[in-house]
Every structure is written in C-alpha cells, then in structure tokens.
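dumping this here before i forget
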Amino acid sequence: MLRKWLLITVICLTMVGATGCQSKASKSSQDAGSTMIKTNHYTKNDLQKRYTRISDIVMKTMTKVSLQSDSKEISKTAKKGLGQLDDIRLELANNKTEDGLTKALTDYNKLGSELLTSAINDAKTYQANGQGFFKQAVSVGEKYFGDQIPQSIRNFANNQQAVTTESSK
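structure:
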C-alpha cells in the first residue's frame, strides 16, 4: 500500500513538474515572439524640446559648412546628425498627443534630414534645402510656440548676417 502511494505521489509530482515546465516554456515562447511598440504621450513642452533639438543638430552641420570646414568633418557631423534625427523621427512617429504639432515637427525633422544629406552629397540642393528648413523653423515657431525660434537658429542667422554685412563693406 505504501508502495502504491509512493508511486502515485511520484507520478503526480512528475505531472505537476511537467505541466509547470510547459507553462513556463509557452510563456517565454510568447514573450520571445512578441514585439512591443512604445507609445509616447509628449506634452507641448516635450515637443518644443524636440523642435529645439532638431534645430541644434542641423545648425551644427550648417555652421561647419558656413565656416568652410573640411569635407570629412562636415560629412562626419552630418552623418551623426542624421542618426540623431532618425531617433527623433521614431519618437515623433509614436507620439499620440498634439497631432498638428507632431506632424509639423515630423515635417521639420524630414527637412533637416534632407538638408544634412545634401550637405554630404549634393551641394546644388543644399541651399534650397536650407531655405526650406529655415522657413519651416519660423513657421513652427510662430504657429506653435509663440514666435519662439531656437537659439541655435537665431545665432546662425545673426552670424550669417554679420558675415554678409562685413563682406559688403
């Protein structure tokens, strides 16, 4: 009789152990196969920080171009900036608040990427892309942030104006 109970206990423990392993295995299989999409809920202030960050990233390369830096240095800075802009693009793509502003910043980010790409590859379109980028910067600042333009853009514009004024004398 004791032997019978021992046998039943061993069988029950084996079944419980096997069931536990199966549930753990199937759970981890589900976890391994699932992809989680992160949803962002940025406030207007959070989005303004991204607006400023996009501007700062692009102005870094534009400043190197205007100072006639070495083409390798310009290319390196632009490529790094493109990676950073791509990160911001993904953040904006997953944002679920401030739809109009998010779209405007997505467009602004795209113009920044085009400008950096032209700084590396296509000097012919660089100036046109720069004009489009600055128009969008002003438009976003006026429409969404009470005419606030990022400091990096104002500094760049002031420096360009100073260079133009100085060279025309």
